[in-house]
Design goal:
- The chain contains 5 helices and 8 strands, in the order H-E-E-E-E-E-H-E-H-H-E-E-H.
- The strands form 2 sheets. A 6-stranded mixed beta sheet has the order 1-2-3-4-5-6, with helices on both faces. Strands 7-8 form a two-stranded antiparallel sheet.
- The radius of gyration is 13 Å and the shape is globular.
- By secondary structure, the chain is α+β, with helices and mostly antiparallel strands.
- It has one domain.
- A hairpin with a 3-residue loop joins strand 2 and strand 3.
């Protein structure tokens, strides 16, 4: 049986590690590809970072779909760049840039799970 995106979101809600194609969680952070789109805050709330065209800025169609699915189980939805920066310590643009390996001005996606690439 294959893992579905809703299974990954359920695992994130329960604090478990799971991956399904391009949506993955280490139980604390939620990633679309290697872009951080959500995380459990120190107070236990689940924050989803609104990387859609109407929020922090769309990355791609798949990431927007992942974000919209994650919003259903979020306690807080962050769509303001200043609020995002105050929570994560970086701008939305830095979050997106950080998700890739850069070489000669081109972006490459790492082939390891995001939590391995970035560390917990």
């Amino acid at each position: 049986m294959s893992t579905m995106n809703v299974d990954v979101l359920q695992a994130w809600s329960e604090g478990r590690m799971l991956s399904s194609g391009n949506l993955s969680t280490d139980g604390q952070k939620l990633y679309s590809y290697h872009i951080l789109i959500g995380e459990r805050l120190p107070d236990g709330r689940r924050a989803v970072y609104d990387f859609t065209a109407s929020g922090l800025g769309g990355v791609n169609v798949t990431t927007s779909r992942h974000v919209n699915l994650a919003k259903r189980c979020a306690d807080i939805i962050v769509s303001d760049p200043h609020e995002f920066a105050s929570i994560t310590g970086r701008t939305p643009e830095e979050n997106i840039r950080r998700a890739f390996i850069w070489k000669d001005g081109k972006a490459y996606r790492p082939f390891v799970p995001p939590w391995v690439f970035f560390g917990k």
